[in-house]
Automatic annotation (TrEMBL):
This is DUF1801 domain-containing protein. The lineage of its organism: Bacteria, Pseudomonadati, Balneolota, Balneolia, Balneolales. InterPro entries: YdhG-like. Residues 20-112 form the YdhG-like domain. It comes from Fodinibius salicampi. It comes from the Bacteria.
Length: 127
């Protein structure tokens, strides 16, 4: 894959079967966190907001959504795994024949925003 200059080119250069999932992940992020700054970092889409970030990438047979260990706790991983998704410490793998777990991702994104805002508020109060 050539180095993407933006998220559109990343999606366009990803496997065709990845396009629907990548587009849906992008839309979930943008609609849940409209203030997120979209860009490319480490050659994959990243969304920065309130001092934290999330992102996604495409592989041969799955897309990976990186949300972070701060919100992807054991109970979330267990629930996702029971639904057939693979998880890592900070990531959710979505096979191209699976539906995006949109409701769960939205919930995790909102939790990530809330934690980041609280941390920023605490940091500014301690100065």
């Amino acid at each position: 894959m050539t180095k993407p200059k933006d998220v559109d080119s990343f999606i366009a250069n990803s496997p065709t079967k990845a396009h629907p999932i990548l587009k849906e992940l992008r839309e979930i992020i943008k609609s849940t966190i409209p203030e997120a700054e979209e860009g490319i970092s480490y050659n994959v889409p990243f969304y920065k907001f309130h001092g934290v970030h999330v992102g996604f990438s495409a592989f041969k047979n799955h897309a990976t959504f990186g949300i972070g260990a701060d919100v992807l706790q054991n109970e979330n991983r267990k629930m996702l795994e029971e639904m057939g998704y693979k998880t890592g410490k900070e990531t959710i793998q979505i096979k191209y024949d699976q539906k995006v777990p949109a409701t769960i991702i939205e919930k995790l994104l909102k939790e990530k925003v809330n934690k980041a805002k609280k941390r920023q508020k605490n940091e500014s109060q301690s100065r």
